[in-house]
Amino acid sequence: TFEALVARIASISGSESGFVDISKRLAFVLAADNGVTAQGISVTPAEITVSMASFMAQRRSSVCIMAREAKCDVELVDMGMFRKLEGPGIVDRHVADGTADISIGPAMSAAEAEQAVQAGIDLVRDAVDKGYRLIATGEMGIGNTTTSSAVATVLLGKTARELTGRGVGLDDEGLANKVRVIDRAIEVNKPDRGDPFGVLQKLGGFDIAGMCGIFIGGALYRVPVVIDGLISSVSALLAVRLCPKAVYALVPSHLSAEPAAMWIMDELGLSPIVHAGMRLGEGTGAITIIPLLDLIIAVMNDMMTLSDIGM
What is the pLDDT of residues 187-246, one digit of tens each? Predict the structure, then answer.
């Protein structure tokens, strides 16, 4: 319920008076590329990541337009696209020029995974220092529903066929290929379900690693962090497996149309409010819930109580 969400936000924020303030909020959109796109797992070419990131930097993408209406700031973070972007509106946390192809070997080195997770933690620290009271998560990266589904398959102990969705419009043949690629990646890398950091390193992406750090940072710096869709959900699950108390910083938003999303929400014990079949990414689902939170927080902060009316 909304009341439970506001109670969660008040708890992680340490509000002793019960008054909740999320008026200063920020969405981090983490951009990264994935080497597994070489296996034809997406109908969209990998070059689109940089193109869309450029639009975001100019505040012209869907999430930027929605965030403007929700009075939420947006920061585009380059975690590791195939081509490094520089200029106004871009936060440079570039780890490498994309990850390696997970169907051949590990996505990244242990050092790269650690760097990306730490970058996410540091982003939250800097945001809190600037006075932000709520963080929303988003991503941009062709192929990241494949990496996310691979990570979820291992962490949840399910099959790739159960958890893998169509992403941006795959047909039946494309979906079958995507499942085969994930199965091959798991067979080649042999990730250990009990080693979440190893799962991230072998099967994840720089966007997933960075968001994992953001969720850990939320718990560390006591600021609520809104989960977006599949990629964000997988990152949250990784964060909780690495740091169980990170669960207290998590705020669900919507239930992604990707099949793994429901399983992950159940595993985290969270109930998304918005059920709209969204799959756009970028943090659009996370932004959607902010005006709804504003409404219920306004009521809870200002509504008369029974004692106010003498009862």
Answer: 999 999 999 999 999 999 999 999 999 999 999 999 999 999 999 999 999 999 999 999
pTM to 2 decimal places: 0.94
Tokens of 289: 């819930």
For 27, 121, 186, 196, the CA distances from 127, given in Å and listed in that order, are: 10, 10, 36, 26
pLDDT tens string 80-134: 999 998 888 899 999 999 999 999 999 999 999 999 999 999 999 999 999 999 9
Chain centroid to Cα 256, Å, comes to: 12
Q: What are the residue numbers of the active site?
A: 282
- Nearest-angstrom CA–CA distance, 114 and 106: 14
